[in-house]
Amino acid sequence: MKLLSAAQTRALDQATIQAQHITSADLMERAAGAVTNWLLDELLLDYDTEIQVCCGPGNNGGDGLVVARQLHRAGYPVQLWLLPAARHSTDFTHQKQQLPTGLAVRQIAPDNLPTITAGTVVVDALFGTGLSRPLEGLAAALVRHLNDSDATVVAVDIPSGLYADATQPADSAVMRATYTLSFELPKLAFLLPQNASFVGDWRLLPIGLDAQAIQNMACAIHFVTADELRGRLPKRPKFSHKGTFGHALLLAGSKGKIGAAVLATQACLRAGVGLMTTRVPAVGYDILQISAPEAMCLADPATDFLTELPDLTPYAAVGIGPGLGQHDDTRAVLRQLLETAQVPLIIDADALNLLGAQPELQQLLPPDSLLTPHPKEFERLVGEPARDDYHRLDQLRNFAGRTGCYCVLKGAYTALAAPDGALYFNSTGNPGMASGGSGDVLTGLLLALRAHQGISPLAAALVGLHAHGRAADLALPHTGHAGLLASDIVRFIGPALEELMDE
Ligand SMILES: NC(=O)C1=CN([C@@H]2O[C@H](COP(=O)(O)OP(=O)(O)OC[C@H]3O[C@@H](n4cnc5c(N)ncnc54)[C@H](OP(=O)(O)O)[C@@H]3O)[C@@H](O)[C@H]2O)[C@@H](O)CC1
Ligand SMILES: [K+]
């Protein structure tokens, strides 16, 4: 799915109206109808629920007017509140004229704000994608009043005061919605940690926006759904053998962190690699052989950390990082790997920290390598803290462009920047994954997909990120959030990948 800018969203509105030969009022009726149906079917409003609909002066307010009309006609006790404004949109004015006479209109004023009691549902239709400046005055006072209440707030399209694709100034008033109902497509703002407390639970309501117009819109930011990935993973042919799926090498582990090597190895095996060799320091040899008998193990001459790079000739892809430690000799291994590798690399964890500590090593990164930092590792990699989440995304795209690599930024919606500047957000996963070892599992999974000759670098990264989160989602009913371990994710990699395979 494309993550359109606010300006593009408005253009899409117009394109839909033209393509479908409808009026903007028709489209508004559809949008508001979807909100009303959601309130009735999902929020399960009952006839006693007090519903306060707060409308601003533009089309977001127009949506609110239609929701109020529809709920009133259906017999629900709606109170309608309007924010005074010098100008109103044409559609707002039109919808106001359509209000039934029995529906009282209340003007919001400093001494006349909606009274919120236990169980009140507020429909926030103050401002949508037309927000042009931070909220102030009465609008800000209303938002703060509602934020201080216990109301269940349902934001229409986007929480009022929140920019769809930029950071609003610190301390500006933004509605803290319980639910945000966005039309057809999500907004970039929903995916960023800095906005989590405003956006709440977000849902997409289809309203028949023109598919062709969406397809024609130039947009380099995507929210990747399972539907878009289905078929990107080739089916295993009947006459395949272990050579078909590549031989992967993993360089991982140090004393006390052999578990990271084990988890990454197991994940790589479960992701369907043909052959797997893991290089660990000697201390890890027995551990790995016992816990991952399907893998071959190459012990380093040193006991506690890696000091030598093995011959790379047999391997189709190389992963480095999980549990590696940052010893000088290990850094020399990383340098030698970067200088000599002719195959795709997956770089994670301490290998990223080593790249951050010695930025000149970054110039050696072979093109199309895949790096998988979490935000702290990414900060070390670029050597500069981000001002906010949007700035961090800029840094991510710049890094991918500068190095010619694919770079991940792990989070609730893990982002992936491609060398061409495109940005992809993953849609799977759950908070149970925020515990030690899940990153190691991702490295192993991605390593298997990069070793596979039939998958492009981009598809490998997207399928890997999706399957990692999906495996955790499949494990969740068996473990609960707190009980979800990295090894549980490993168990469900197979089923998660199966869902994406060619028919
Ligand atoms: N796109 C779609 O597919 C569909 C879109 N639909 C709906 O349309 C919504 C977008 O409507 P919209 O463009 O009229 O903008 P909206 O947010 O209502 O407000 C603009 C007004 O607010 C004003 N204003 C702005 N900032 C302000 C501030 N800080 N403080 C005070 N005033 C401020 C601004 O004034 P101005 O900036 O001109 O001074 C202008 O008067 C969209 O979110 C969705 O709900 C659906 O109906 C159908 C499908
Ligand atoms: K809103």
Automatic annotation (TrEMBL):
Binding site for (6S)-NADPHX: 59-63, 128-134, 157, 260, 323, 374, 440
Keyword Nucleotide-binding: yes
An example molecular function term from Gene Ontology annotations: metal ion binding
Keyword Transport: no
Annotated K(+) binding sites: 60, 124, 160
Location of the YjeF N-terminal domain: 9-215
Reaction catalysis annotation: (6R)-NADPHX = (6S)-NADPHX; (6S)-NADPHX + ADP = AMP + phosphate + NADPH + H(+); (6R)-NADHX = (6S)-NADHX; (6S)-NADHX + ADP = AMP + phosphate + NADH + H(+)
Domain YjeF C-terminal: 225-500
Any Pfam family matching the protein: YjeF_N
GO biological process, one term: nicotinamide nucleotide metabolic process
Binding sites annotated in the UniProt record for AMP: 410-414, 439
InterPro entries reported for this sequence: Carbohydrate_kinase_pred_CS, CARKD, Nnr, Ribokinase-like, YjeF_N_dom, YjeF_N_dom_sf
Keyword field: ATP-binding, Isomerase, Lyase, Metal-binding, Multifunctional enzyme, NAD, NADP, Nucleotide-binding, Potassium
Cofactor comment text: Binds 1 potassium ion per subunit.
Stored SUPFAM superfamilies: Ribokinase-like, YjeF N-terminal domain-like
Enzyme Commission number: 4.2.1.136, 5.1.99.6
Cofactor(s) needed: Mg(2+); K(+)
Subunit structure of this chain's protein: Homotetramer.
Protein purpose: Catalyzes the epimerization of the S- and R-forms of NAD(P)HX, a damaged form of NAD(P)H that is a result of enzymatic or heat-dependent hydration. This is a prerequisite for the S-specific NAD(P)H-hydrate dehydratase to allow the repair of both epimers of NAD(P)HX.
Family statement: In the N-terminal section; belongs to the NnrE/AIBP family.
Classification via HAMAP family: NADHX_dehydratase (MF_01965), NADHX_epimerase (MF_01966)
Full protein name: Bifunctional NAD(P)H-hydrate repair enzyme
Lineage: Bacteria, Pseudomonadati, Bacteroidota, Cytophagia, Cytophagales
